[in-house]
């Protein structure tokens, strides 16, 4: 039998990666074997071991080749950098949520991350994966800082706390939607969800009032 060309080998490797994404997203990483991936890809088990020595290796390959979220939404954000900060944030967040809602592969990857994976030492860390598949934290922080600088956001805004809040809001929305996609229309409701989240950044909170104990 003739040896496979480099192009054919790369095609088979990518086929295995795509099959692994599907299997991990539906069955979970722990419950999927390399044999399951081979069957899903329609290749022999030998073909799997030619490209990957372990399940962790194919898991890591999935994320190593994954472009950052910003690469998918850059053409969908109408507002350019340097524009009104809150409007730019709004565009980024809406475009991101709508991309996630519409793109089946991105949904599968997020399903693996949020619901179908238990990490081990030989797997890429959850922190590194989040950097690839979630918002660009450094970019969001720069936009918030610009908002404070130009007085579009309260001067008292704590950027670190705002970043924690934004991450929590969007992680929660995506995680809950993935659990039951019929619970709400993420694509359609993305603008109103984002508007309500961004509204929290514009509230200048006063120190809590301590109530006196009744005598």
Give structural notes:
With about 220 residues, the chain is mainly alpha-helical. Helix content is about 65%, strand content about 0%. It has 11 helices and no strands. Helix 1 packs across helix 4, helix 1 crosses helix 7 and helix 6 runs antiparallel to helix 11.
What is this structure's SSE topology?
Layout: H1 6-27, H2 34-41, H3 45-51, H4 55-64, H5 69-73, H6 85-102, H7 104-115, H8 126-133, H9 137-149, H10 159-179, H11 186-199
Helix pairs in contact: 1-2, 1-4, 1-7, 2-3, 6-9, 6-11, 7-8, 7-10
Q: Give the CA-CA distance, first to last residue.
A: 93 Å
The geometry reads as elongated
Given as residue ranges, the uncertain stretches (5+ residues, pLDDT < 50) are 204-209
Q: How many individual helices?
A: 11
Helix content: 55-70%
From the structure above, extract its key features.
215 residues; mainly alpha; 11 helices
Short description:
The protein is mostly helical and 215 residues long.
């Amino acid at each position: 039998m003739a040896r496979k060309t480099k192009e054919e080998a790369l095609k088979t490797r990518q086929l295995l990666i795509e099959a692994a994404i599907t299997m991990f997203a539906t069955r979970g990483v722990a419950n999927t074997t390399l044999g399951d991936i081979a069957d899903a890809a329609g290749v022999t088990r030998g073909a799997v071991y030619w490209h990957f020595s372990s399940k962790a290796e194919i898991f890591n390959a999935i994320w190593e080749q994954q472009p950052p979220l910003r690469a998918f939404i850059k053409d969908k954000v109408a507002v350019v950098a340097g524009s009104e900060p809150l409007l730019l944030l709004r565009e980024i967040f809406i475009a991101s949520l709508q991309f996630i809602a519409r793109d089946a592969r991105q949904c599968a990857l997020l399903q693996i991350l949020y619901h179908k994976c238990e990490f081990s030492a030989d797997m890429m860390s959850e922190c590194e994966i989040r950097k690839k598949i979630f918002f660009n934290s450094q970019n969001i922080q720069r936009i918030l800082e610009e908002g404070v600088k130009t007085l579009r956001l309260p001067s008292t805004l704590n950027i670190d706390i705002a970043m924690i809040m934004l991450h929590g809001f969007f992680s929660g929305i995506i995680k809950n939607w993935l659990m039951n996609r019929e619970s709400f229309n993420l694509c359609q409701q993305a603008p109103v969800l984002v508007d309500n989240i961004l509204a929290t950044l514009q509230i200048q909170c006063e120190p809590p009032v301590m109530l006196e104990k009744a005598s």
